[in-house]
C-alpha cells in the first residue's frame, strides 16, 4: 500500500474528517508533545553538560534517555505541600490554566500535506484543524497561559511569588506586542492568517516587481523578511520565560519566582507547560518563516520530498533546530537585568517593528503597482525609507547627558572646629601657593 496519494478526494482535508480520525489526531498530538517534552529535558541536560565539560544523565536507560521519565515519576510521588494562607482554588487552578493552553495551540499547526491513512481508504490532512485566523488563535491561546503564572504567584501568599507573577504580566505585555508586530509583514506577503496558506505561499520563489524589473527572492520568509524573523525569535524567548529572559523565576533575586510555593505534580505541570510552549513557538516559527513542512534545499530537489509522510520529518527537524537554539542560549548567556529587558522590548524591538512594517507595506504597494510609472514607484520607495528613518529614531533610547554644575568653593575658616587647622592642599599648585604665603608671613 502506497503512503503517497496520487489524487486525494476533493473533500479531503481539514473540516471533513470522520470522528475517529479527529480522535486519532488529538491522541497523536498529545502523545507527541509529552514524549517531546521528556526528550527535550534530556537533550537540554546533555547539551549543557557537553558545553560545561560534564557527563550529564547517563544512568537511567541508554544514554540516560529515561532520566526525564524517572524525574517525572519522582515528582508524581513527592509530597504535595500547600502553604497556609493561600487562595486554594486559584492556587490549584493556576497550573491547569498554564498547561491546557499549551496543548491547544498545536491544533492549527500543519505537520504535512494530505495523505492516505494506512490500511484504509481515507485521506486526511496532517493538521487537526485550520482557521482563517489561525495565527491569531495561537497568540490568543498562548496569552491565556501567562495568566496561570500570574495567578499562581498571586495566590501563593508569598512576596517572592507575587513579584514573579508581576514580572510575568509585564513580560507578556511587552513581548507579545513585539511578536504580533513581527508577524504583520508575514500576513502582508502571504495574504492570509491561515497557517496552511502561509506554508503554501512559501512553496515557491517570490517575485517583486520594482522599477520595471522582476526581482526573484527566496520563498522562505526567514530570508525575505529577515528583520521580522529576528524580532520574532527574540520575542518568543521572552514570551516563554527562558534564559536569558527567565526573570519571573530569577533564582538569584526571587528564590524561584512564581514557583516558590509549589511542589509535586503542580510544580511539574508548570515545567511541562514551559517545554510545550517552547515547542509551540518553535513550530510557529517553522510554519511562518521556514516553509513549514516543506523540505529544505537540496532535499527539495527530490520529487517525493513534499509528499506522503516525509514532510513530518522535515517539520520536526526544523523545530528541533529552534529547540537547540533555546538550549544554546541557556548555556551561554547570563540573565539580563529587568530594566534592560524592558528597554529591549519597548525601546528597541517595537520601534524597529513599526518601521519595518511601514517599509514592507510600501514595497508591497510598489510591487503591485502594475500601471504606474517607474518614477512613481521610485518615489514611493524613497518615501517609505524616509519615513522609516524619521520614525524609528523617535523611539530609540537616547543617551543621557549629565549636567555639571559649577562648584563654588567656600571661604576657608581655620578656626571653624574650635582650633586652628591648615588649609586643604588641592594640588601641587595650591600647595606651592600656600607655602609661598607662609614664607612671606615669616
TrEMBL record:
Ranges that cross the membrane: 20-43, 89-111, 131-154, 175-200, 220-238, 267-289, 309-328, 348-366, 378-396
Chief location bin: membrane
An annotated GO cellular component: plasma membrane
Keyword Transmembrane helix recorded: yes
InterPro entries: NADH_UbQ_OxRdtase_su1/FPO (IPR001694), NADH_UbQ_OxRdtase_su1_CS (IPR018086)
A Pfam family of this chain: NADHdh
Composition bias, Basic and acidic residues: 428-442
Keywords from the named record: Cell membrane, Membrane, NAD, Quinone, Translocase, Transmembrane, Transmembrane helix, Ubiquinone
Topology within the bilayer: Multi-pass membrane protein
Location of this chain's protein in the cell: Cell membrane; Membrane
Stretches for region Disordered: 416-442
Substrates-to-products reaction catalysed: a quinone + NADH + 5 H(+)(in) = a quinol + NAD(+) + 4 H(+)(out)
EC id: 7.1.1.-
Top-level taxon of the source organism: Bacteria
Example GO molecular function: oxidoreductase activity, acting on NAD(P)H, quinone or similar compound as acceptor
BP GO terms, sorted: aerobic respiration
Similarity field: Belongs to the complex I subunit 1 family.
Stored HAMAP family: NDH1_NuoH
Quaternary structure, from the entry: NDH-1 is composed of 14 different subunits. Subunits NuoA, H, J, K, L, M, N constitute the membrane sector of the complex.
Its biological purpose: NDH-1 shuttles electrons from NADH, via FMN and iron-sulfur (Fe-S) centers, to quinones in the respiratory chain. The immediate electron acceptor for the enzyme in this species is believed to be ubiquinone. Couples the redox reaction to proton translocation (for every two electrons transferred, four hydrogen ions are translocated across the cytoplasmic membrane), and thus conserves the redox energy in a proton gradient. This subunit may bind ubiquinone.
Name this polypeptide is given: NADH-quinone oxidoreductase subunit H
Organism in which the protein naturally occurs: Kribbella voronezhensis
Amino acid at each position: 500500500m502506497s503512503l503517497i496519494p496520487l489524487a486525494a478526494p476533493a473533500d479531503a482535508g481539514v473540516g471533513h474528517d470522520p470522528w475517529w480520525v479527529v480522535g486519532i489526531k488529538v491522541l497523536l498530538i498529545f502523545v507527541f508533545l509529552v514524549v517531546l517534552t521528556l526528550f527535550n529535558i534530556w537533550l537540554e541536560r546533555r547539551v549543557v553538560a557537553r558545553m560545561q565539560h560534564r557527563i550529564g544523565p547517563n544512568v537511567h536507560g541508554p544514554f540516560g534517555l529515561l532520566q526525564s521519565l524517572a524525574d517525572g515519576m519522582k515528582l508524581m510521588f513527592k509530597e504535595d505541600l500547600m502553604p497556609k494562607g493561600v487562595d486554594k482554588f486559584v492556587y490549584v487552578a493556576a497550573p491547569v490554566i498554564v498547561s491546557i493552553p499549551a496543548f491547544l495551540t498545536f491544533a492549527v499547526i500543519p505537520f504535512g500535506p494530505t495523505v492516505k491513512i494506512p490500511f484504509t481508504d481515507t485521506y486526511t490532512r496532517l493538521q487537526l484543524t485550520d482557521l482563517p485566523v489561525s495565527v491569531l488563535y495561537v497568540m490568543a491561546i498562548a496569552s491565556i497561559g501567562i495568566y496561570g503564572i500570574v495567578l499562581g504567584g498571586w495566590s501563593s501568599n508569598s512576596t517572592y511569588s507575587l513579584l514573579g507573577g508581576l514580572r510575568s504580566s509585564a513580560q507578556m505585555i511587552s513581548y507579545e506586542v513585539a511578536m504580533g508586530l513581527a508577524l504583520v509583514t508575514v500576513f502582508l506577503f502571504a495574504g492570509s492568517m491561515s497557517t496552511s496558506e502561509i506554508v503554501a505561499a512559501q512553496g515557491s520563489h517570490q517575485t517583486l516587481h520594482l522599477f520595471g524589473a522582476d526581482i526573484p527572492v527566496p520563498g522562505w520568509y526567514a530570508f525575505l523578511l529577515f528583520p521580522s524573523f529576528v524580532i520574532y525569535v527574540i520575542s518568543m524567548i521572552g514570551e516563554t520565560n527562558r534564559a536569558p529572559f527567565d526573570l519571573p523565576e530569577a533564582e538569584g533575586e526571587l528564590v524561584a519566582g512564581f514557583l516558590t510555593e509549589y511542589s509535586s505534580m503542580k510544580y511539574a505541570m508548570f515545567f511541562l507547560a514551559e517545554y510545550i510552549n517552547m515547542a509551540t513557538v518553535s513550530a510557529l516559527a517553522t510554519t511562518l518563516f521556514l516553509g513549514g513542512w516543506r523540505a529544505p534545499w537540496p532535499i527539495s530537489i527530490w520529487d517525493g520530498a513534499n509528499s506522503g509522510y516525509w514532510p513530518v520529518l522535515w517539520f520536526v527537524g526544523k523545530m528541533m533546530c529552534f529547540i537547540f537554539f533555546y538550549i544554546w542560549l541557556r548555556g551561554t548567556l547570563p540573565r539580563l537585568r529587568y530594566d534592560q529587558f524592558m528597554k529591549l522590548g519597548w525601546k528597541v524591538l517595537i520601534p524597529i517593528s513599526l518601521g519595518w512594517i511601514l517599509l514592507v507595506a510600501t514595497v508591497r504597494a510598489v510591487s503591485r503597482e502594475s500601471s504606474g510609472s517607474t518614477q512613481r514607484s521610485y518615489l514611493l520607495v524613497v518615501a517609505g525609507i524616509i519615513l522609516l528613518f524619521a520614525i524609528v529614531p523617535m523611539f530609540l533610547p537616547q543617551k543621557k547627558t549629565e549636567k555639571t554644575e559649577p562648584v563654588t568653593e567656600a571661604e576657608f575658616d581655620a578656626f571653624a572646629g574650635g582650633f586652628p587647622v591648615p588649609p586643604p592642599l588641592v594640588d601641587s599648585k595650591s600647595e606651592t601657593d600656600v607655602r609661598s604665603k607662609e614664607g612671606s608671613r615669616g
